[in-house]
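Hi,

Apologies if this is the wrong queue. I'm a grad student, and the batch job for Protein NO VEIN C-terminal domain-containing protein from Paeniglutamicibacter gangotriensis Lz1y produced an output file that my downstream script rejects. I'm not sure whether the problem is my script or the file. Here is the sequence I used:
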Amino acid sequence: MIPAEGVLIAAARWLDLLGRSTESQASMIIRSNSRYADLTPTQYSTALDWLHSLPWTGLTVNTLGRSDTLQKMTSQGRKECLLASLLEVSNPPWLENSDVLVHSSDDLPQDINRWQELLGLPPSSGFRVVRRISGKIDLVRRAQIGNAGEVALCMLLEAKWPGAINHVAERDDGFGYDVSASIQNCEWHFEVKSTTRRGRLSFFLSRHEFETGLADNYWKLLVVGLDDELRATCVAEVDKSALKKFAPADRTTAAIWATARYDFGEGQLSPGLSFLPWEQADFRTHRLLTQGTRDQGPNFSWMPTDAGRAAALPILGPP
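Support response: The file is valid. Your script probably expects a header line. Output copied below for reference.
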């Protein structure tokens, strides 16, 4: 729940006072100093309860109203932490795409601008907090989505080739791929990138994954599109030559790239897994893998629009 503006102002005042005094001393100042009389006792009480609920404040029943944590922080640092807590609780829709939408403090959304105004923070603070929280949330969410996509792909492949699929990333993430599939005397290696984003496709590729792909003819980079319940609704293959074409280049041995972010669209993707040896009946029973999409599901704008062409593909064997 996002606190009302009066409670937010009260919380900022508590933080200023608790940065140099105990809780009882701060409470006495609030009650006796006319500067604080523009807010009600209920607003101050609600604000203090909220601060007690935030672990980073160090305010617990065992501190006797004194927080060494707060007293070691600057006034701006305390308020930036409060702004971060607000952002985490609200989790606005734009936060997931803030790396694209927010390039500077001039791009900050209205809610962040209002909160930092109430807290007395400069625009640079809001931008810094957005970057920090979006990165933190993105790491957690990315891991959850990534695992869901890998598991979904394994289940889809297992339905066609029982016992042939190995989710290697469950045990070891150092192979340079996530899933292996032993199909008709070939062992395929699939690096899987999963996303719930409808409008754009962004994924990270480590240098180890990239170099594994270049050296392995049976390595494929696959993209799995997930719906809001993290169910697979589209599958595509990434053009390996595009990975090489757009990869960073080291300019000196003193610094080398370790991870790259790719922003790809339908021009670098092919729907479905056309390289696998499908039978004619599979185009009906395994539509998601052969044609790349289900009959129904969310629309991913990065997914190739010619998914229907897969039905006309010849029955393929291993390379």
